[in-house]
Amino acid sequence: MAFESLSERLSGVFKKLRGKGKLGESDIQTAMREVRMALLEADVNYQVAKSFCAKVSGRAMGQEVMDSLTPAQQVVKIVNEELTTLMGGEEPQQLRIKNKGQTVLMMCGLQGNGKTTHAAKLGKFYHKQGHHPLLVACDIYRPAAIDQLKIVGEQAGVPVFTLEGAKPEQIAQKALARAKDYGNDIVILDTAGRLQIDDALMDELVRIKQAVEVDDTLLVVDAMAGQEAVNVAKAFHEKIGVDGVILTKTDGDTRGGAALSVLAVTGKPIYFQGIGEKLDDLELFYPARMSSRILGMGDVLSLIEKAQSVQDNAEAEESAKRMMTNKFDMNDMLAQFSQIRKMGGASALLSMLPGGNQISPDTLDEKALPHIEAMIFSMTPAERAKPSIINPKRKRRIAAGSGQTVEAVNKLLRQFEMMQKMMKQAKRNPKGFMRRMGGMPGMGGMGGLRG
Length: 451
Hints:
The protein has helices at residues 4-18, 25-41, 46-60, 63-66, 71-87, 115-127, 145-156, 168-182, 199-211, 227-240, 257-266, 287-294, 300-310, 313-324, 330-342, 346-352, 369-377, 381-385, 392-402, 406-428, 430-436; strands at 103-108, 133-137, 160-161, 186-190, 216-222, 244-248, 270-274, 282-284. The chain is α/β, with parallel strands linked by helices.
């Protein structure tokens, strides 16, 4: 996940500060040197890292921190506030969609950064909000680019406009006319990319902007490109004028330097972040939430939103009711694993839990989940509802049916019994249960279930 390595480094710095009690100027200076190194290793732009540390140092050496009973916490608070400011402020920046007429969004960027896929993601994002987007195939050079847009457009439930034999600027004009006739209120132009920035690419984008009135030019940049992503953003902004950024592949980059640098270098906000390969894997970029994740404070709001998006209220109430009345069975356990997968997997959940960066992702072995599911699916309905009836003979049958060992089946049953005990404890002592949630045994130690 993005910022994983930076988060680990900063946690180490703040742990040292907390161990000192009172802080002096030398303590702050030493900590800021380590923070600057951590930022640089995360591929943050050098000038951005230098300026950031100077601001934090200036505030951290004030009387408010030096005279505080908890100076280390005050430093963390300052770092949190400055990180949030660096990435754009408390609230996410949102595109201005017109109430009347068409809003034209032009996607641009280098080839391979995910423009076409994210055009479809953007279309689906606004389609789910009740808008009627239109995807426009302006990339007439890359082989199969138009076919790709048609495929992802169909998957997103968004129409695609194509016009063979025409130039990109002509396609954009015809598409806008079509949108007016058919009531498409958002027009998303998927333009061509290149392997590197060149005059031909920029000239084409300029011609499109001259042919139609583009409301927002969105640059799609690869978070895994690190510092190079910032250089690309700066070049595009200087040549054609960029209004904002969509940061892709944030689920695959452990450094995250691009997110911390792009606004400071270009002055343009990150509107969205791509968090996976699916068309639903697009989120508004929340600077404050991202800052909390970086500092290991979690992101409970995003966690709640994810939970609500994958499970309706009726399901949640029914699940809670079953757990609190000691009716938790293997079917419920199976449903819990399904929810974890829908919410982005165990590592994604850890990044949103306060202190989650201190828990090893190995504790929640996602690779073991298919094996666990196979064993549960190999059980009869009666066995799932009442696992206590599973005797040695049944265990051998379940192991054979799932391709696992009897030892793995025994371990699964032990994990289930521990979860049942926790549910009983939750009913008797809800507050105590919540304190222990971080060490939930039903989710830990499943790495050995591979058979």
